[in-house]
Write a structure and sequence with these properties.
The chain has a domain of about 110 residues: abc- transporter (atp binding component) like domain (Coagulation Factor XIII, Chain A, domain 1). The protein is built from one helix and eight strands; from the N terminus they run H-E-E-E-E-E-E-E-E. The protein has a four-stranded mixed β-sheet, with no helix packed on it. The radius of gyration is 24 Å and the shape is elongated.
Length: about 160
C-alpha cells in the first residue's frame, strides 16, 4: 500500500521538524530545560510533620518537608498564619531551598516584637509552601489546621 500525497508531505514535514528540534536549529538560542524527574516515591514537596515551640527568643514553627522529586529548588516561599476566628494574630515567612530526594526541617520564627500575642487564643493556623522549579513546574502546599496552636516544651542546655 503506497502513501497518499498528503501523507507523504506530512511525513516529510514531521521528519523536518524533528530534525530541527534535535539539531538545535529551531531558531531559539535558549537551551531546552531539563524536565523535572519524579523520584522513586512519587513526586513533589509534602509537609511531613510540624510543631510549635516557644523558646526565650519567641514563638517558632518547626516544619519538616520532603522533596520526592529528583530536582532540588531554591527561593521557595514558606509561610504560617495564625488566626483567632478571622482575625490574624501572627504570621511568619521565609525563603527555603532543598536538594532533590531529601527531607529537611525548617524553623520559622514569629517576629511579634513588643506586641502581646496570645497564641493560646488561636483557633486555627495555615502553613503554605510555594515551590517554583527552574523549568516552570511548581508545587504548592496549602494546609489549614482547625485547632489552636499548641507549644511543646523546650529545654535549654546550659
Amino acid at each position: 500500500m503506497s502513501l497518499t500525497r498528503r501523507e507523504t508531505i506530512g511525513s516529510i514535514l514531521l521528519a523536518g521538524l524533528a530534525g530541527c528540534v534535535g539539531s538545535g536549529l529551531d531558531g531559539g538560542d535558549e537551551e531546552t530545560p531539563t524536565p523535572i524527574e519524579v523520584g522513586p516515591s512519587g513526586g513533589g514537596v509534602s509537609l511531613v510533620r510540624h510543631h510549635f515551640e516557644y523558646p526565650d527568643a519567641g514563638p517558632e514553627l518547626f516544619a519538616t518537608l520532603q522533596n520526592t522529586r529528583d530536582a532540588g529548588f531554591e527561593l521557595a516561599d514558606m509561610e504560617c498564619h495564625v488566626y483567632e476566628g478571622d482575625t490574624l494574630l501572627a504570621e511568619t515567612f521565609r525563603t527555603i531551598s532543598m536538594d532533590g530526594n531529601t527531607t529537611t526541617e525548617f524553623s520559622l520564627g514569629f517576629n511579634i516584637g513588643s506586641k502581646q500575642v496570645d497564641f493560646q487564643s488561636s483557633t486555627r493556623y495555615t502553613i503554605t509552601v510555594d515551590v517554583p522549579y527552574e523549568n516552570g513546574v511548581t508545587d504548592k502546599i496549602e494546609k489549614e489546621f482547625d485547632q489552636p496552636v499548641q507549644f511543646i516544651e523546650t529545654t535549654s542546655t546550659e
